[in-house]
Predict the structure.
Amino acid sequence: MDQNLSRIVAQDKNFLNIINGRRVAALSQETITVLCPSDGLPFATIPAGTAEDVDSAVRAARDAFEHGPWSRMPAFERGRLLTRLGQLVEEHGDELAALESRDTGKPVRQGKADVVATARYYEFYGGAADKIHGDTIPFLDGFTALTLREPHGVVAGIIPWNYPMQIMARVVGAALAMGNTLVIKPAEDASLSAIRIGELAIEAGFPDGVLNVITGYGREAGAALSSHPGINYVTFTGSPVTGTAIQQAAATNNRGVTMELGGKSPQIVFADADVEKALPVLVNAIIQNGGQTCSAGSRILIERPIYNDVAAALGERFSKLIAAPHDMDLDLGPMVNPAQKRKVENFITSAAESGIEVVARGSIHVDAPVDGYYVAPVLFGAVDPASVLAQEEVFGPVLSLFAFDDEADAIKLANGTEYGLVAGIWTRDGARQHRVAKKVRAGQVFVNAYGAGGGVELPFGGFKKSGHGREKGFEALFDMSATKTVVFRHD
Ligand code: ADP
């Protein structure tokens, strides 16, 4: 990291929660130490919020929803505030990128890309706030029927550690555009950008209590938030196991949920594909963010006649990949925490021990601190579609190759996991592009391209174990609101 950015990050080591427009410590005064994944060293603290802090944040959000200026504010003014927040994100772009990189270990250029997407979310939803409206419905003679779109009330947003700033932005943008108020619970491993954005929201002029940020452990603060009776709707991005726990907690109060729960996303490479164009995209789709990406393209399905050539070309690229500290800005950074490093290493060891072919391995930079959480990327070939490696989300820099015989075989393999988040199709055949896009069970399908990141306008979410509900784009505004039908009789 350059000197300037280091200094900006170092200025504020003790981060505080944002409740009712004020920066506050946890009521217990307890904190969680923030470690940098690149060297394992502490550099900040965040509050260890518990149920009592959650309760105070939910009350603030409820009060702002029921009684504050927010409840009377026209949609275009809510939109202006979101747009202003987007501008502030841009103005503080270097600081936010440095903070996010240091907190998560991601290369600085990824932190910068996250800032660009974050600002875009706030701009997009700022512009969308006054462009969503209900319908009039042809009904009985003597009646007029119409629909209004109303906010749920207080929304809880439980955010993961992989793209904290972006994922918070898609939640905050859509929820606030529709007039909800929010309590955001970022992940204990990556809360700093959420707190900074909460501070910038105060600067942007959001009324007190509209956007509250409360940090703490998932099992304490997260569990207290998802089961709180004062919450009207819960949106979550993270692992399926935690998603189930959150849905069960929300169900105790019969609250609605949006769940984005990861994937095992395939990219299908047909023999007629432009392979040169595909190769860098195939590699990037698993290496970006060290593979800790819900939409990572973790399975490559290759038509048999070109399998050996594509495997060799990918192998050549993989062997050159280098994991390094975030501020060296190389191919990938470390994993976010020691547990994630161990989990990914266990996948790699068991797959190799079970006899799956290792086509290529990348490396860890010689100057990477030994206490950082680095994993060298691995490319596995001829993977058995029934194996654990083929079926489970690794969430690390591990790519699996499979050979297929024809289109039907490719579709069967692509749909052959419990997940259904994203898919890529590489072929020059236009009719096949359409056929396969329809048959692949995934919330987003890319043809001769890949990459869910940054497409703020594009609805995103999963089928099957990957979740339900849709985020991003206009679709998210429907999840973040409910339809009210009003019927007038005038005969
Ligand atoms: P990981 O297992 O890699 O930590 P999770 O999906 O569990 O990822 O975490 C995503 C988010 O969910 C984090 O903000 C975390 O604090 C939160 N979380 C974890 N467990 C729970 C829980 N039982 N209830 C509510 N939130 C939780």
